[in-house]
Amino acid sequence: MRSRIILCPTDFSETASHAISYAVEMANLYQVGVRLLHVVDKPFGDKHTRVLAETQDELNERMEKQAAVEMQQYIDSLEGYFPFESSISHGHPVEQILATAKNIDAGMIVIASHGRTGLNHFLNTNTAEKVVNKARCPVLIVK
Fold this sequence. Notes:
Rossmann fold; five-stranded parallel sheet; 5 helices; 45% helix; globular; Universal_stress_UspA; Universal stress protein A; Rossmann-like_a/b/a_fold
């Protein structure tokens, strides 16, 4: 851990921003870098699609471009704070987080948890919990 990059997945939420501050603190302590990762998940529902207006590939490309813009704005807002590496990937968030951690030989994953409980926890998949259970490196969950 002490000499390997810290992976910090983000969905651009306030909770994820809070997790980044922990990642930066750990990175400063161990003198390592931070890689921000945003995963563009498979879209579902009318919110993301236009009826017969675009193909799945066009939709994926549009979502990736939007994620790239959001990632750059996000990094710009933090730039004076710490230099970041960043990447955007497509697919299931848990799978992509774990694959990225393996590919970059991450020393730690710092991930936000939205703290859902009860029925809301049951109905919404908990990415942080699944990452903790499957990761091969230490994972810090931030609420």
